[in-house]
Amino acid sequence: MSPASQAKDAPLLEVKDLQIEFKTEGGVFRAVDGVSFSVRRGATLGVVGESGCGKSVSSLGIMGLIPTPPGRYAGGEVLFEGRDLLKMSAKDRRGLRGGRMGMIFQEPMTSLNPVYTIGDQIIESLRAHRRVNHKEARERAVELLDLVRLPSPSKRVDDFPHQLSGGQRQRVMIALALANDPELLIADEPTTALDVTIQAQILDLMRDLSDRTGAAIMLITHDLGVVAETCDEVVVMYAGRVVERASARDLFQAPMHPYTLGLMAAVPRLDEKGSRLETIPGSVPPPWAMPKGCRFASRCPLATQQCRAEQPPLRAIDGDRLVACWRAPIEEIAA
Amino acid sequence: MLRTIIDRLLLSIPVLLGVLLFGFLLLQLVPGDPARVVAGPTATPEIVAQIRQEMGLDRPVLVQFWAYLERMAQGDMGRSMISNKTVTSELGAAVGPTVELMLASLVWSVPIGIAMGTAAAVLRGSLADRVVMGLSVAGVSLPIFFISLLLIQYLGVVWPIFPFIGRPGPWYTPEGFMALFLPALSLGLILIGPVARMTRSSVLEVLKLDHVRTARAKGLSEIRVVLKHGLRNALIPVITLIGLQAGYLLGGAVVTETIFSWPGLGRLVVGAILSSDFTVAQGAVLLFALGFITINLIIDILYSILDPRVRK
Q1: Which residues in chain A are closer than 8 Å to B217, comparing Cβ atoms?
Q2: What residue intervals traverse the membrane (chain B) (predicted)?
Q3: Contact between B168 and B176 (Cβ < 8 Å)
Q4: Which of A73, A80, B132, B253, by CA, is between 20 and 30 Å from B20?
Q5: How many CB atoms lie within 10 A of CB B6?
Q6: Residue B181: which CATH number?
Q7: Interhelix angle for B174-207 vs B232-250, to 10°?
Q8: Closest residue in chain A to residue B233, using alpha carbons only
Q9: Residues B266 and B157 placed together within one structural domain of the fold
Q10: pTM for the model
Q11: Within this chain, do residues B278 and B135 fall inside the same structural domain, yes or no?
C-alpha cells in the first residue's frame, strides 16, 4: 500500500481516550472519561446517548469550545488528519475552527447574534479564513444561503436572525458551518429544537450537502430514528464513556450492550401497537457518585458481581464491533 | 428609525403636560405668599395686594393655569422674583455651563469605564479584575466633595496646574478649557465606577450566550469575539445607566458646581429655592423635565441602533 493511499484510508478525526473534567463547587467531575472513536472521510458518525452522557461535551471538546476554566482537558488525544488538536497552538486551532471543521448547534433560536444580519455573520466567517473582499464574500454568502435552500437568498442575506423562523435559522447555521468547505461537520442535536416536519428537511439537507461536498459528519443526537436514517457508524455513550461502537447496520440488527438494547426498546414502534413502551429502570449515576465498576450496572438486568466491581474495557467482539460489557455478547443470555 | 423618533416624540407630549401641571401646582402649594416675597419684607399690605393682582394670584386656579399654559407656549416663564431678570435669560445663561460640564465629564469617563469593565469581565477573577472592581467601589463610595477637594488641593494648590474657581469662558477658549478640567475630572471619576460595574456584569452575561459560542466556532480571534459579539450586545444596559446618570448631571451637579463656583443650573436652582425665587425654580423644573425627555429620546434612538429587534 502506498503512503498516499494509506493517508487516504486514515481516519479524518480520531479521538483517543479523551478525558474532559469540570471543576464545580461540589468538586471536580469528569464529564468525558476515556472516550475513543474515529470519523472516516465523507462518512457519517452518530453519537447517541441520554442527555448528560457527555456527547455534547465531547463534540465541544473536539472543536476546542470548552471554556477553560471551569473545564479542563485531562488527557487523551484528538487527532485531526493525524495532528493532535490538544497540542496545537491556540492560533492554529482557531484556523481549523470554522475553516476545516464546522459546527452546528442545538439551539438555532439563540445561536446567531441578534444584532448583526445573517449575511454579516457569514461574511465574517468567510473573511476570517480566506482572503476575499467584502463584495466577494457577500456573493459567496448568497450562494451559501441558496445552497441551504433559504428562499430568495439575495434578499434574505440582509435579514436579522429575528426575522427568520427556527428552521430557517438552522439553515443559516448550516450555511455558516459550511462556509469554508469544511472536511468535518459536527452537528450537536441539530434538529432537537425544531418541528418534526422541519427536522426531516434539515437532516435531508445535511445528508445531501455532505454527499455533494464530501464532508464527514459527526452527528450528536439522542434520537435513534435519526441515527438509523443517516449514520454509517454509531457510538453509544453512557455516563461519559463509550459503551458500544459499531456500524449502524450491525447496531440496529444486533445491539450488544444492555444499554443499547434498552435504548432501542424505548423507541416506539408502529408494528407493535398497544404494548407499553419499555423504559430503562433507574437513572444515570450523578457525576460525584460514579460507581467503581460498570456505570450501567445499577440499571442493568444482567449485572453480576464482576460488573459492579470492575469497569469493563471496550473490547472487540465479532470482528470490528466494540462493546464495553463483561457479559457481551448478550443475545444468548437475553434470550 | 424615523418612525421610532416620531413615536417617542408623541409619547413625550403627555409627559410634558404632566410636568407643566406639576410646575404650576408647585407654585400653588409652596408655603409662603409669592406676592409677599416679591414685595419684600417692608412692603405694606396694600402693595402686596396690588402685586398679587398684577401676578393674577387673586383669580381662580383654573384661570391661572390657563394663563400659565399660554405664557409657557410663548416661551415666557416670567421674571425672577429676586433679580427681576426674565427666567428664560437666567436659565439660558446657566444651561450652557451645565451641559458643557456634563458632556466634558461623560466624554472621558464613559469610554474608560466601558474599557475597564470589559477588561474586568474578560479577566474575571484575576488581579486586574479585583483592582478594577475595588477602584469602582471606591469611586462610588467616596463623596464627590472629598474627591473634588483632593483634586483642588493637589492639582490646583500644591501643583498649581489647573484653575479651580469659576468659568472664565466656554470650553473652546484656552482659559475655559483649563477651568473645565478639574470639575469634569471629579464628576467623571464618580461616573467611572458604575459604568465599569455595569459593563462588567453585562459583558459577563453576554459572553455566556450561545451566539458567542457560535462566534468562537467560526474561528474568530478572542478580541473580536469579545468586542464584536460580546461588548456590542452588552451595551444596552450600559447605555441605560449612562442616560440616567446624564439626567442627574443635567439636573445640576450641585455639589460640584458649588465647590468649583461653576455658574450652572445646579447652583442657580439651589439659590432660587433658598431665596424662595419661585418663578426660577418653576422654570428649572420644566427645563429638567425637558432635559430628561431629550436624554430618553437619545437613549431610545441608541437602543434601536444597537438592537435591530427594537426597530419598527
Answers
A1: 63, 65, 97-98, 102-103, 105, 177
A2: 101-123, 135-156, 176-196, 234-260, 280-306
A3: yes
A4: B253
A5: 10
A6: 1.10.3720.10
A7: 140
A8: A115
A9: yes
A10: 0.83
A11: yes
